[in-house]
Amino acid sequence: MGRTRIGLALGAGAARGWAHIGVLRALKQAGIVPDIVAGTSIGAVVGGCFAAGRLDELEGFCRDLTRRKVFGYLDVNLSGSGLILGQRVVDRLEAHLAGLAIDKLAPRFVAVATEMGTGQEHWLSRGALVDAMRASYAIPGIFSPVNVDGRWLFDGALVNPIPVSVCRALGARYVIAVNLNSDLCGRGAIHPDSAAVGAPTADSTRPVFSKPAARKLLQRQLFGGGEGGPGISTVMVDAFNIVQDRIARSRLAGDPPDAIINPRLAGIGLFDFHRADELILRGIAATQRDLEELRREISARDHAMHVSHLHS
After folding, report:
1. Residue 191 pLDDT > 60, yes or no?
2. Which one, of 283, 282, 302, lies nearest residue 294 by Cα?
3. What digits encode the pLDDT tens for the residues 259-268?
């Protein structure tokens, strides 16, 4: 007689996305296996690896990361449309996912991306899995946009940071959302008459355009260490994160999930990819807090479906 089709919407959040691995581990251990997985940005990477049966490989990779190794993947690009070329990351993905097509995966998987120029939301449900992942996580200004079927696409967090709507459209009757930013951004409060705390510190160093110097500058901007104000890449990413948080709140209010898992990730930065052990544990803990309610609600949906079939 079947069971309730479960959808899992994995949200954006850069390095915090390793918590998605913990969520998936805890759900699977509890016997809750999604029929549909939709992911945005890092959610598309983790969700795609899960749907492809490569979650173990991804977990092994991220647990092995150190701060030094993370920076080693950031191939500086001085002439393109993003600060990071991203080819080293793509090469690593291709090593495990080359030749895999999205429409051949089970469970069903969709990656969300945004089209340049039009701002249209694109649901990538066919074609090369790695290309879809790249388009979904291409943060504007950090990674270059990706050409998919003649359209230039970048990070889906600009339009649908937690893709509950995708799961619904694909037939999910019970949708679990994972929000990586629930305790990280403010609630949009306004602080009138805030006094300025001082002018930004001027950087007296002369611009240097050599690649070694650019790599050191990018490292300082992404991981900190400078004594002055935040670097340009830090400002860009933090602004992007605030925008995606506001969009996520609006989208979730208009199309709420049946359940939402909120890992407690305060204090973990967008580029703390080397903290995978901690992030995975936080994902597991967040899921375990909600497991009893998840089981009860899914069981109730299954029972209602069973009764409906008996009377039809």
Report:
1. no
2. 302
3. 999 999 988 9
| Residue 41 appears among annotated catalytic residues | yes
Active-site residue among 41, 136, 165, 233? 41
Contact 149, 131 (CB under 8 A): no
The pair of structure tokens assigned to 213 is 């110097």
Alpha-carbon span 164 to 7, nearest angstrom: 8
Q: What is the pLDDT of residues 85-103, one digit of tens each?
A: 788 899 999 999 999 999 9
Per-residue pLDDT of 57-84, as tens digits, reads 999 999 999 999 998 887 777 667 777 8
Write a three-state SS string for the chain.
CCCCCEEEEECCCHHHHHHHHHHHHHHHHCCCCCCEEEEECHHHHHHHHHHCCCHHHHHHHHHCCCHHHHHHCCCECCCCCEEECCHHHHHHHHHHHCCCEHHHCCCEEEEEEEECCCCCEEEECCCEHHHHHHHHHCCCEEECCEEECCEEEEEHHHCCCCCHHHHHHCCCCEEEEECCCCCCCCCCCCCCCCCCCCCCCCCCCCCCCCHHHHHHHHHHHHHCCCCCCCCHHHHHHHHHHHHHHHHHHHHHHHCCCCEEECCCCCCCCCCCHHHHHHHHHHHHHHHHHHHHHHHHHHHHHHHHHHHHHHHC
- The structure's pTM equals 0.85
Catalytic residue among 35, 131, 136, 155: 155
The answer to whether the CB of 120 falls within 8 A of the CB of 77 is no
194 is catalytic: no
Peptide bond into 107 cis (omega under 30): yes
